[in-house]
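Two records follow; treat each independently.
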Amino acid sequence: MAGTATSRAYAHTTELLATGRPVILDGAVGTELPRVGASGGRPGDERLWGTRALIDTPDLVLDVHRRYVETGCDVISTNTWGLASALAAEGPRLWDDAGAPVHWMDIARRGLRLATTAVDEARRAGETAVAFSLNADVDSPDGRETIRLLARLFADEPTPPDLVLVETLSVLRPSLVQTVGELIGVGLPVWLSFRRCRHGVCGVYGEHWGGPEGDEFGRAARRFEQMGVGALLVNCIPPDHVAGMVSYLRDFCDLPLGVYPNLGYYTDAGWRFDPGVGGDEYARMALAWREEGAQIVGGCCGTRPEHIAAARERLAETRPGHRRRGGLDDLDIDGDGAPRPRAAEPWTDGRDRRLYPLPFPDLAVDPGVQPPDEASFMVWRYLFREGVGAHQRCLDVGCGTGILAVQLALNGAAHVRAIDVDRRAVANTLTNAFRNGVDDRVTATEVDLFPWTPEERYEVVVASMHQQPVDPAGAVSTHRAVDYWGRQLVDQLIAKLASALAPEGVAYVMQLSIVSQQRTAELLDAAGFRAEVVDWVMYGFPVDHAPAREQLARVEDLSDAFHLRVGERDVLVAYLLEITAKGNGNGRAGGRPPTPPRAR
């Protein structure tokens, strides 16, 4: 590459690519540090993603690098991914234990030297290349100045990096071409990696961040090749979103192409690892990427040295394939040249999640606990479909089996508190949280909603509670008023929303048609809230409603409550209300999953 210094280690990498052998990139550093003893960083460390460990625990950073070098990686990355964020105008700052600011170029030097030390100790100089890692914040005016200063640092270092790797790029800003030009001007090979899938910009959970853009990314890849970029990769997306990207990019450029997805997802408590993907499974997936043509394979957040070692062993004797995925011509061809129908594509939703079989939580129903009914299933479906609760603190009122609490946690909620008056339901919820691997983010307590005073505010509140009018003539002696209108629990929840719901929060409350809409609207209005129906479902009368038909008739005669009669069948309508404080726009932002940047 004209004007680019090529080290012995990078020349080795180039030779591997030229001869069709795989280049193995390392796995995660930021998520691996806590596993080797790091405390996880100080508060506010997300945008730095482990970079602060270069100040606090450099010995552990070196340990992680050593583990990847020992697996035989051809390229390892410095633990400097968050450096560009630290230098952004509104970015997090780097301080030492005494509270004094740390010179960022000292951090850059330390990150580089720790990686080169690991390579030298393993006597792999000339075999394992060191990539200086930067994140997408380098694509900014501050970032471009950082690039120019890094060029001075690299020129003064006795062992400069072998290449520069810019990771988790996403949006194709007009400034990116200028930024890439500045990077190439440093005089080292440049690799670019994007958080992209066939549907466009892709989040760490597989969510899509914008509308369709056609071939814009492919055309950009061609432009990067013409500018002199050395390789193009995709990273920090779920493994099931990798398929199709290599064959898509190959249509536009002849650059070496690579993939390194994540395993798991981010929570406020740290990275949630995917326990279902071990080394063998990761190696199997890596082989599929290789068959599509991937020349560089590694791992992002949540991957470990054992994943990389297994992938390296599986890919050792392979050559990049030409299998196409995700396009219109994704067909297998028989030996006689006749097209063979491909396997049926899985049924998925708008977030590319498989719907057949339905990814329904693993639920046990303990004796004495009411199983979910059609209304609760409707609420669950909405939470699942919309991804409600990601990164937020949530409250499930009347949790029952925990179906809603578990789904909120599976959606990536930071924490879910579940409450129910029945201690059997509380125990059942905790059991189901454990069965679904979210017990670290779900707590459940026995709470009587009537005297309860919320201790904190939540961004999301969900409730699918019992609603049945009761004839007072048949009631036994009780200190609690008989539920003549069938709405006592709904009314109690509405009364407590002002102190339970965060100012920008959203409540999702199920209400049956046999409960007055007018009364609900009056109570919400008095409390400063408004409601919108976001889903509804029809279903036959539950068995436990049959004895209350006379009371239902009274309630329907005295209010706007109703049910339907279809032939000989009585049918209820269950509505899902989205409740927000007045003046909060459409109110939906509080319940939808945010999409912050993620990194290795």
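The next record belongs to a different protein.
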Amino acid sequence: MDQENTLKRLYEKQLSLSGSDSPLEKIGRAFFKKGSLPASIVTQLVAFSESQLNKKSPWDHLETWRELLSLALMTHLDAAYDPHRNEIKESFQNYPKDYFWKEFQLSSALSNLISALVDLPINLPAIHQLQNGAVPLEFGGHWTWGEIPHLRHQAELGIYWALLGIKYENAEYLAAAEKIAEWQLNSLDYHFYPFVGLFVQEADAALCALLCDQYLLFSLLAILKSSSRMAYAAKRQLGYLEHSVLSTQVRISVIAPLLEEYIHKLGESPVPIPFGLPQSIHDVDTALIGVRAEEKSLVCTGFGGRTGLGSLHFDDLQLISYGPQHLPLGDCRGFGVEGGRYSVKTVVMQADHAHKGSFLIQHQARLSAKPVYSTSSPLFRNGQRCQAWLDLKQEFKHDYLSLDARFFGDTPKELAFTFFVKAKSCTIQETRKVLPRTLDHYQSSPGAILLSGETQQFSIETPHRHGEMQVIPLGGGDNFWGADFLIAYLFDFHSTAAYTWQINLT
């Protein structure tokens, strides 16, 4: 029985929307409409990339390689495109490969997969993976923020490792991909919805892309392992993805339906069988702890890669991410903390068995580097190393999440502690109501905050009355992790004071 290529259907639907096509989208339009592919378009795509090489960031180079992977997939999915394989092969051979180091495993996996599809020789490197299945973005210490797994990129890596494992019958790669897929389940709440702000930098926080990669990864493992569990996880990701695409008209990349079609040709997916995710999350390798329940799911962490310290889903409300942030507030490159298992040594994680669903995590983590813009690989998103640290205890009990923080070291003067929230409205000190997507910016002394959704509410309170609190309505979408509000506390942070916030699920 043929499996439905849902991403293809969604992609074809968006082709009917008005808008200017990029060179790759023109190729995708020709491919899915079964039209001819002028060689000039492929040449234009590659030439455009090569003319901009010196201005590209590492992420730009990865995107170009994804475009070449898309072309290579086309030659395997439609015999009419096979004559273009040599052109793609020559283009990739000529593309410089020295923008990345070997410890950045996503680049090597992507490079090897393209090479395999265009008949170039490859050398599969040994895999570096934590025992629990998580994969640091890079393990050479080149990027201060690369010591943790980054959700989107880890899911993408799992897809490439699985496809390489199939192509070369490599058991190590297949097992590593399966472990990634199992670990990615930690990033889902009770309803299989992803914690969008967990281990994801704001610049990479596109919900549609995350859902695409996780759907493809789970689908691929469902086929390879005949796993009804993975088939069900894939089905849930696809449901959220379809709703997001159809309700917001967000565009998906052409590589997604191509990978889906390629994966479906590998075999039949088993029938999805519903299952429940574990109530508790406890992963020492990523300092991740949390609970899941039908009404609420919460994860907290002591590690980061310019990422936040936790995420809460409470019915339709979301505390997407929170943590320290360098000013200005509109630049999230200075948000969060940095460090993983090799650099953060003091982490205490405890589940409170006397109170079901309660836990505590206490840790010390370095504040993220102050942003410095550079596209070169060594400096990419690295910035000026911060010499300040955060000592934080997070405790969840009786529907209260308490944050007790101290800062030490050379604490910067221009620093805030911020919360990014998805909610219908925000009420300040019981008197002033602020709505998202407005210009109603609140700026005054700290006071009680009440976030409201369709059916639930939660509050954010602090006993501190000095300093300043700002509530800034946001526009949703892919910016600021899709948040509706930014709530910022600008205190004179210093080492002799403790700072406390309490989130109460009312």
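Discussion point: The longest strand covers residues 317-326. How would you locate this feature using only the token line?
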